[in-house]
Structure to design on (603 residues):
């Protein structure tokens, strides 16, 4: 990176050590908590992808001779529900929708926020004023309320939930990117690129974007945790995945009126959401520390 | 100071107008014809046309928006599709319960979150710091609907201490929902307070305060916290949205009659007159809450007041 050439202390020790990403990744690798989070998250993703192979039973199969089987048994380690469906298999399958939807929603929010924030911060002027006014109004709605209403208008279903969560989160990313762009716009490398005749789009996406990416990545990682919570929550209030599909939030909703007979029905899917979000947050915290040069 | 308050309050007006406009536009996309929904499946086309005329649904969009805005300003949010009750009255009947829940949760979160954060930043025990921060991390990772279910199971079903399900008005019905709602916000505040206190704890003015022999307690509150508080207040403001949204999940878990539960029932019935009114009230209270936060800034930091 052009602006790091003056940094002699780093070049002395190692040839490529001055690359920001290399340094950051090395810092991340030394962070035990972040590595636990990363390993846990990869494991959860792997298990979720392999659920058809790993699940001992069909998640939808109803075994009426094994209803309300308590957890701990050899056949049903997590027990069964009122219809005799295997809770373990349902939990293993249950991450597919929520994790995919949450990740895509964050991708929408990040993509949209980057474009909006770059335009707003780079051009300034009427575009900036317009985008900032819309952002203000957008953010004036409490996020979850906005989301619930959006889903109720768009209709339930996974792609709707994904779009709604993405739309709700765009302004936050837009604000973040705009702030970073404003700081970057006056930097020498931007002036140099412009002096060389680079077009606006090239300056924005090729020169500015890579330099402002670190905080966006941190924001997105930590945001993924809340997106998973929200997607599960929407299913829990009946606005996300519809039964009988095995999905963690929907399983919690299904377990609601069975607390007394079968507390394990809500425990396992809830714990699955919790562990996933915990891993994401561990990784996000580590990324924040690693990607923030002020902390090094 | 008065000028500052008035100026800030004035800035809220365009935002509120924008909020009403966005709400209005959003609900233009709501499925179904309101007249049809009100009259039911057996309505004649003539009946529907008549109802549309009564409601002014055939007027141009801008006129309908102005009518909506004029009503909202006077506290008239229209009538619900099915009960034909004024939506404002339906909302006002449920507002106190939700307000009570949100305010108790916020109080719990601020009291515990901030003191835990201060403890974590100032303790000399690295172990205690790590342990408390691990708890805070668990707090932000737990889904509040899951905490609610588990607390309810442990304290309500197993121990039988409180029957938290349903009902409002007394402490027994409030403690579990408020605690559940407070966990995530309290944990966020604890993490934030810790990092903000750590940021200013080595500032020159703190060293000066210590050097002149100021008591440690006064150093903490008068110098460290006064400066850390600005960021903390910002995050409290940002969390009003989480708080209001959280009431939907919490009221759903604990079957607590309030605005959140009302929202879900309105959505379930597809009564978009109710939903629209609720959204407007939620957004307006959010704007109002942020206005209070803005004013608090000016109170905490004189530099903001005079700029």
């Amino acid at each position: 990176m052009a602006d790091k050439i003056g940094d002699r202390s780093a070049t002395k020790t190692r040839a490529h050590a001055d690359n920001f990403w290399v340094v950051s990744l090395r810092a991340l690798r030394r962070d035990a908590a972040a590595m636990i989070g990363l390993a846990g998250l990869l494991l959860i993703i792997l298990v979720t992808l392999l659920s058809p192979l790993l699940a001992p039973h069909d998640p939808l199969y109803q075994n009426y001779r094994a209803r309300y089987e308590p957890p701990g048994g050899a056949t049903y380690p997590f027990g069964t529900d009122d219809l005799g469906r295997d809770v373990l298999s349902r939990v293993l399958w249950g991450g597919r929708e929520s994790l995919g939807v949450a990740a895509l929603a964050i991708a929408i929010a990040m993509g949209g926020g980057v474009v909006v924030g770059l335009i707003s911060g780079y051009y300034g002027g009427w575009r900036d004023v317009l985008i900032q006014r819309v952002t203000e109004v957008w953010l004036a709605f409490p996020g979850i309320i906005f989301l619930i209403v959006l889903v109720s208008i768009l209709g339930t279903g996974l792609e709707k939930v994904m779009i709604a969560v993405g739309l709700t989160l765009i302004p936050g990313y837009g604000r973040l990117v705009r702030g970073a762009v404003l700081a970057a716009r006056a930097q020498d490398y931007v002036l140099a690129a412009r002096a060389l005749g680079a077009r606006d789009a090239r300056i924005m996406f090729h020169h500015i974007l890579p330099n402002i990416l670190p905080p966006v990545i941190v924001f997105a990682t930590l945001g993924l945790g809340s997106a998973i919570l929200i997607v599960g929550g929407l299913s829990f209030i009946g606005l996300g995945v519809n039964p009988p599909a095995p999905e963690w939030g929907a399983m919690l909703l299904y377990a609601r009126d069975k607390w007394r007979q079968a507390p394990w029905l809500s425990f396992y899917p809830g714990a699955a959401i919790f562990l996933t979000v915990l891993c994401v947050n561990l990784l996000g915290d580590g990324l924040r520390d690693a990607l923030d040069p002020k902390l090094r | 100071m008065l000028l500052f308050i008035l100026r800030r309050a004035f800035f809220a007006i365009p935002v509120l107008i924008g909020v009403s406009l966005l709400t209005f536009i959003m609900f233009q996309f709501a499925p179904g014809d309101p007249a049809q929904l009100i009259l039911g499946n057996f309505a004649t086309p003539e009946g529907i046309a008549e109802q549309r005329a009564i409601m002014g649904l055939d007027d141009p969009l801008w006129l309908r928006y102005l009518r909506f805005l004029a009503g909202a300003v006077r506290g008239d949010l229209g009538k619900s599709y099915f009960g034909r009750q004024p939506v404002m009255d339906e909302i006002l009947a449920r507002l106190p319960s939700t307000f009570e829940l949100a305010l108790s949760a916020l109080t719990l979160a601020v009291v515990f979150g901030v003191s835990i954060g201060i403890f974590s930043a100032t303790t000399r025990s690295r172990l205690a710091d790590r342990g408390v921060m691990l708890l805070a991390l668990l707090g932000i990772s737990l889904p509040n609907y899951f905490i609610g279910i588990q607390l309810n199971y442990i304290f309500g079903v197993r121990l039988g201490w409180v029957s938290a399900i349903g009902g409002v008005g007394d402490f027994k019905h409030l403690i579990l929902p408020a605690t559940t709602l407070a966990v995530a916000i309290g944990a966020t505040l604890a993490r934030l307070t810790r990092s903000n206190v750590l940021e200013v704890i080595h500032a020159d003015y703190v060293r000066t305060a210590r050097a002149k022999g100021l008591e440690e307690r006064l150093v903490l509150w008068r110098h460290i916290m006064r400066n850390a508080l600005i960021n903390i207040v910002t995050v409290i403001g940002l969390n009003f949205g989480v708080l209001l949204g959280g009431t939907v999940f919490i009221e759903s878990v604990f079957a607590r009659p309030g605005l959140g539960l009302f929202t879900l029932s309105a959505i379930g019935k597809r009564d978009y007159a109710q939903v629209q009114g609720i959204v407007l009230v939620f957004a307006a209270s959010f704007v109002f809450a942020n206005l209070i936060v803005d004013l608090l800034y000016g109170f905490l930091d004189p530099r903001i007041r005079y700029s």
